[in-house]
Amino acid sequence: MKEIEQVEIKIETLRSKMYQVFTCNPQSSDILKISQTLDEALNLFDALKDSSESE
Predict the structure, then answer these.
(1) What is the pLDDT along the chain (55 residues), one digit of tens a residue?
(2) What are the Cα distances from residue 10, in Å, to 23, 25, 55?
(3) pTM > 0.85
(4) 29 half-sphere exposure, CB direction, 13 A CA radius
(5) Of the candidates 1, 2, 3, the residue with the CA atom closest to the CA atom of residue 44
(6) CA dihedral defined by 45, 28, 21, 47, rounded to 10 degrees?
């Protein structure tokens, strides 16, 4: 599996997890942690996408 596909899966997993945590407890500190990890994954996805388009 390509790295970009792995990152896509990670993004979807993190989004789902953040939604589940938020619906159970909107004040949870886990939301911030998940959000930061999701942001990093989205930045990585954008970088990988940009590099694959320039090839």
Answers:
(1) 799 999 999 999 999 999 999 999 999 999 999 999 999 999 999 999 998 888 7
(2) 20, 22, 24
(3) yes
(4) 0
(5) 3
(6) 0
